[in-house]
Amino acid sequence: MLYVLYGKDDFSLCQALNEIKADLGEPQILAVNTARLDGQRLTLDELKNSCDVAPFLCPHRLTVVDGLLKRFEVKSGRSGPSKKRTTAGRRAELDEWEQLPSYIRRMPQTTVLVIVDGGISSSNLLLKRLSPLATVKVFPMLRGKSLNAWIRQQCSRERSAMTPEAVDLLAELIGGNLWAMDNEISKLALYAQGRAINEEDVKQLVSYAQEASIFALVDAVLEGEIRTAQSTLCRLYQEGTSPTHILAMISRQFRLIALTKELGSGLPRQQLQDKLGLTWGYALDKTFSQAKLYDFDNIKRAYDQLLETDLAIKTGRCDAQLALELLVAELATSQC
């Protein structure tokens, strides 16, 4: 039996793999009869050798292969001889695996082969060969209504509920990172103790909400709102955020602003978000709007002030909290 599981939602993919394992026998015995192989370096003979092994005290043997399909991706966006050589190279590599479909047809009935990969295209050369013989499951990154539905379902599994406003905020803060989402929902359900989780609960408990406060702080600085910046800074202190962490987050935000200005607005939204390493749409929107307020000279001056504050803290020339308060005042004043 052959399964092909792929997609960027590795949380759901992992759950699907665990469900396959649960159907194959007692976990401790199945573990002895399981092989996990690196598909990036695997040869067809090595795969056959693993799959041909008879199970020991178990009805099935499980072989899981990671990253094999990615070897046969044809990258788009290039043309000319370079792309032709790349495609030809993939096809030459595929030649070694030409026998895989015929091998799968005669693979021992006791063997379950699972090929696991990340985000690959439907035009993947090996995927096309294997799809007619496999149970194929695709796990795209959840967004929008699908993500909100998943949050409600996960709350139900935790025997809890969540208000629509809280669902929207949690989805906006964390996005499609279901590993982080699952952890935050468990934490929120425990905190709520049977009542419906509300928006205020999310703001107080979810770690990503601190990042939202950093955006609010940088917003106030960029707009020259000294009092708002100082009150936001005070709130972050009250929430237990350390001055060095706040400084690091402010520095990170100015770096994102600089990168956004350098990349420009010509890139598609999702591509820009990926290049910046941002996991949620709110962060991209805020960074993009903040980048419009700064030119490169202002960014350079801000970097100089950030460096000076960092050195003052690390060398002990100034108390960390005081140094940060002075930095925020200076950055905000420069925008007035």
Q: Can I get a quick summary?
A:
This protein is α/β, with parallel strands linked by helices and 336 residues long. It has helices at residues 10-22, 27-32, 44-51, 81-96, 100-106, 125-130, 144-157, 164-174, 178-192, 199-205, 208-222, 226-238, 243-263, 269-276, 281-291, 296-314, 320-333, and strands at 2-6, 34-38, 61-66, 111-117, 135-138. The N and C termini lie far apart (67 Å).
Written description of the protein model:
The chain is α/β, with parallel strands linked by helices. Strands 2-3-4-1-5 form a 5-stranded parallel β-sheet, with helices on both faces. The longest helix is centred in the last third of the chain and has 21 residues, at 243-263. It starts with a strand and ends with a helix. α11 (208-222) packs parallel to α15 (281-291), α12 (226-238) runs antiparallel to α17 (320-333) and α13 (243-263) runs antiparallel to α16 (296-314). The model is unreliable at 77-85 (pLDDT under 50). It folds into 3 domains: 2-138, Rossmann fold (3-Layer(aba) Sandwich), CATH 3.40.50.300; 144-205, Helicase, Ruva Protein, domain 3; 208-333, Zinc Finger, Delta Prime, domain 3 (Up-down Bundle), CATH 1.20.272.10. β2, α3 and β3 (61-66) form a beta-alpha-beta unit. The chain is built from 17 helices and 5 strands.
